[in-house]
């Protein structure tokens, strides 16, 4: 079977947009409001002739109090079933406490993780991405899921660990 790649992160960071970019078609639902992806949804994908299964995560109903743990729970199930994960964060918000919560879960799961700093739509965003080194997940890979910027480099890195 094809290896499984989970895409995790807070609502609204651009996970579904990134998945559509990788798939080359609009299949994952993208919304301006957080919490649209209801369940974990799998998509067959391919990069450089290598097949893999992409798993979108992160919708459900958000209640502010329980948000961090719910995100981590969903991400945890997806990561447990996956061979590797892309952890998507948002360059525009910077590091949040929820991001740090997800990092702790990812550490426990002990899967290879590639860090994608999304919404870096142009050169100017590159500098902001440096703060994500503090998550301790290695190099922050800057991407714009919306425009495709950096996504090929990200996938090359992901396939090295998948
Ligand atoms: P998800 O909740 O993590 O799946 O996030 P979505 O993919 O649904 O995207 C949430 C919002 O962020 C939508 O309004 C997207 O259009 C927007 N978005 C996603 N990727 C980018 C990006 O690279 N740049 C910008 N500027 N906006 C983005
Ligand atoms: Mg989504």
UniProtKB/TrEMBL annotation:
Residues recorded as binding GTP 1, renumbered to this chain, are: 9-16, 56-60, 118-121
Q: Which residue range or ranges hold the EngA-type G domain? A: 3-162
What's the stated role of this polypeptide? GTPase that plays an essential role in the late steps of ribosome biogenesis.
**Recorded family membership:** Belongs to the TRAFAC class TrmE-Era-EngA-EngB-Septin-like GTPase superfamily. EngA (Der) GTPase family.
Q: Subunit structure of this entry?
A: Associates with the 50S ribosomal subunit.
Put simply, this protein is called GTPase Der
- Give the species: Brevibacterium rongguiense
Upper lineage ranks?
A: Bacteria, Bacillati, Actinomycetota, Actinomycetes, Micrococcales
